[in-house]
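Minutes, structural biology subgroup

Action item carried over from last meeting: produce the structure token record for Peptide/nickel transport system permease protein (Cohaesibacter marisflavi). EB confirmed the sequence was re-checked against the source entry. Recorded below for completeness.
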Amino acid sequence: MIIYSLRRLASLCVTLVAASLFIFAVMEILPGDPAQLILGINAQEDTLAALREQLGLNLPLASRYWLWISGMLQGDFGISYTYSVPVTELISERLTISLPLALMALALSTLIALPLGILAASNHGRWPDVSLIGATQIGIAIPNFWFAMLLVLVFAVTLHWLPSGGFPGWEAGLWPAIKALLLPAIALALPQASILVRIMRSSMLEVLHEDYMRTARAKGLNLRQTLARHGLRNALIPVITIMGLQFSFLLAGTVIIENVFSLPGLGRLVFQAINQRDLITVKAVIMLLVATVILVNFLVDITYGLIDPRLHRRQGSQ
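Output recorded by EB:
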């Protein structure tokens, strides 16, 4: 397991370096002068030159990349061109909204999908299975922003159960904050839960046809006991992959939902930074999201090794 983990850790480091090089290169070739964007088109050339020197824009590309990457390793993402505050501070403020929102959406999708996927697989070909497949098809097809507006219309405008948007802050109390995030989390969770139900169903159907499952049934275990003791652990292997990818998507893909509900989260920060050409903020947030995706995939690989010991034994023998 140690050799397996070290190999995955080395792969993570190489991928992070490659991703940082790609993001830096893409941001550098974009048209526009950050100093010109900050000071405006009427700024004097000597003022522009002084700002470029202050921002380090006159340094060679290799030096600028090193300053950027070494700063990030120390927690310094630079100063926002638009807000004139550290980007780390902006990201920290927005993560207190986007991270709980993504976790809530992932928890909701998992709580919905796993039992429904097992139910569909254990009733393969019967009406519960057919009904769930049809429902998941609808869930995948519905755009989450349209579903979000429908939730606002029903639960905020008509029933007045939940707020239609905005965020009161965690200092206002746990329940008001959760109420503000509940509708966005449901809107994000619906398509993810629909996908996860189908993955769980397919994985469980494959497991149900394995020899060890038939042997367990022949020894007198009922279907529920067989699934709980032997089937679920093996069926979760592909599901964990999708869950890891879903968390990365939920954290990085909240731009539309956060704008629908007027949530000052990470997705809305990216949207505003792109509109304002705040490239240093865009670069930092994208790198953070990419690093999150890579780290989640690393954790998924480690979880694979814990669930299925055959995997790291096979890799360790190579």
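Discussion: The domain at 89-316 is CATH 1.10.3720.10 (MetI-like fold).
Next step: EB to file the record with the rest of the batch.
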